[in-house]
Q: What sequence folds into this?
């Protein structure tokens, strides 16, 4: 199960808590988890923690975690689909429907849905 927003909020608060040495192992565990499932809120919390005075072990772990979080953020940004063309293609045949002279009453084209019972048509 992935972390929900409320879980991340609790973990981010724990990272920024100055609870002393008792929270060091917990914070190190949070950094390891964030390397795998961190998001933009995790990134902000780790960056904020790095602005504070913390011991060297936590600083090293936070800096390592920050590298992973930035890589994860880049992967998420790259996975976002381009929703519309940036320019009109030169050939209208390249589009499902030409972008010029569009009439509002035309239905939108949808991809065919797969059916479990393909043989039962």
A:
């Amino acid at each position: 199960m992935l972390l929900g927003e409320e879980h991340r909020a609790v973990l981010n608060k724990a990272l920024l808590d100055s609870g002393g040495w008792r929270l060091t192992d917990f914070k190190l565990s949070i950094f390891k988890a964030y390397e795998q499932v961190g998001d933009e809120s995790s990134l902000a919390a780790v960056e904020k923690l790095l602005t504070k005075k913390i011991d060297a072990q936590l600083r090293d772990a936070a800096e390592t975690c920050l590298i992973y979080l930035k890589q994860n953020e880049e992967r998420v940004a790259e996975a976002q689909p381009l929703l519309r063309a940036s320019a009109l293609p030169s050939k209208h045949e390249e589009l499902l429907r030409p972008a010029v002279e569009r009439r509002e009453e035309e239905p939108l084209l949808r991809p065919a849905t797969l059916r479990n019972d393909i043989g039962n048509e």
Summary: Residues 56-79 form the longest helix (24 residues). Residues 5-79 form one domain. The mean pLDDT is 76.
